[in-house]
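As agreed, record minuted below.
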Amino acid sequence: MRKMTQANLEAAFAGESQAHVRYLIFAEEAKAKGLKNLARVFEAFAYSEYVHAKNHLKAMENVEDAVANLDKAIAGETYEIDEMYPKMHDEAIKAKERRAATSFRWAMETEKNHAEIYRKFRVLIASGRDKSIGQKFYVCSVCGYTVESEPPEVCPLCSAGKAMFREF
């Protein structure tokens, strides 16, 4: 693939991915204000942006190999843990931007869980044991902390209660 096309696909993927998440957040805010029809519009457009992002990603790289996908996920999480979030957190602390520093710290700590879970799944998937994975996952809706099997009574990162965990 030509460099320009690859760069354009990467930029389009990033933009569409950001729009997808942004619109989902806008939908949550609209719902919280009782604007259900506006929320529905944001949700519909968020899905459209997701479709665009998915198409761009598939044009850029092979996403059909589960083990390769896990390897990419592990590499991404490891980069965030080792390089991206520590630097961002330190810069936010130096700038006295507490909200940003907290957001970066929560993300960095959560990514550690993600990387470990991905590593465990990689072993299982590579040995053909997807069906042996049956536990549920719970994600804190305040900070993103992720746990297997059962949510804690209190989130170890942000102190949110058990009710704030979403089941997957």
Observations:
- The radius of gyration is 18 Å.
- The longest strand covers residues 137-140.
- The mean pLDDT is 96.
